[in-house]
Design brief:
Layout (H helix, E strand, L loop, with lengths): L7 H23 L5 E4 L7 E6 L3 E7 L4 H9 L6 E7 L4 H4 L1 H8 L1 E7 L9 H12 L3 E4 L5 E3 L2 E2 L18
Parallel strand pairs: 3-4, 4-5, 5-6
Antiparallel strand pairs: 1-2, 2-3, 7-8
Protein name: Metallo-beta-lactamase domain-containing protein
InterPro entries: Competence_DNA_uptake, RibonucZ/Hydroxyglut_hydro
Keywords: Membrane, Transmembrane, Transmembrane helix
């Protein structure tokens, strides 16, 4: 009959070396203690991902759509599905719409946003806050002087800051 050009020995060797390469890539990223800062290309809007000493994941804004997911998929370790700190600089949809998708795919420990009492916010923003509450994610207000995590101090806005322009908040 017909004999396969791929021998069993070759297949076993290929599998072994493939496993070893994957294993060493995993180990090198697992023990990488460097801090990474990535500015995600999300089109209109902002998103920045920071991984601190291979332990703490921080996301600042999430862009206007789900394109932030591809950035996180590329730069976050594949085994890590938790974002410790998620910041929203101000409630413009080109900064927060991506959080709808993030909240579905990742566990978020804390969601930090500005006080919106002096702002007129959209129904979509209110839906995002409701989704975050439904997922039992802790929401904290960003106010100067507040320590939200060891080594993370809020610098702006000051307490009782009021503005009707959402771009006066941190960007």
């Amino acid at each position: 009959m017909f004999e396969s050009p791929v021998k069993t020995r070759d297949l076993i060797l290929f599998s072994f070396f493939s496993f070893m390469i994957i294993f060493f890539v995993f180990l090198s990223s697992f023990f990488d203690e460097r801090t990474k800062i990535v500015f995600c290309n999300v089109g209109q809007g902002d998103a920045a991902y920071i991984r601190i000493r291979n332990k703490i994941d921080v996301l600042i804004d999430a862009g206007p759509d789900k394109s932030v997911l591809s950035c996180l998929g590329k730069y976050m370790p594949f085994w890590d599905r938790k974002i410790e700190l998620a910041f929203l600089s101000h409630p413009n949809n080109d900064h927060y719409n991506g959080y709808f998708f993030i909240a579905d795919r990742y566990k978020i420990d804390k969601f930090i946003t500005v006080d919106t009492a002096s702002l007129i916010v959209s129904k979509t923003y209110k839906k995002l806050l409701q989704k975050i509450l439904n997922k039992k994610i802790k929401i904290e207000e960003a106010v100067a002087g507040k320590i939200i995590w060891p080594g993370f101090n809020i610098l702006w806005p000051p307490k009782n800051f009021a503005s009707n322009n959402d771009n006066d908040f941190p960007a």
